[in-house]
Amino acid sequence: MSLDVYLYGAADQTRCVCPKCGDDHAAVNEPQLFSANITHNLNTMAGEAGIYEHLWRPDKIGVTTAGQLIEPLRAGLQRLRERPEYFKRFNPANGCGTYEGLVRFVTDYADACEDNPEATVTVSR
What we know:
alpha+beta
């Protein structure tokens, strides 16, 4: 099991002709700006860093845009980096997922949020 996070840009509405019926239809295209995946095995570590909800359950805390994630993810990343030995205690016993993997995931996600603050946040768990 894993978590997939996505950032989508503003929708472009274009017109296209349906090859079956010949009618002119509106087509909505939301470009994917970022996507990343991480194992659920790191959710306890994320919780200890104070960012579980921001990663796994943004809808539950009212997060809809990437800009809303920048500060919480940066704060969680700082907590992770300040106490690596503490957080490494939460490395999964089965070896699937690591402290370093979570730091990389959060860094990449926070960077993408900063680059695309108006993007829509979507997760699949």
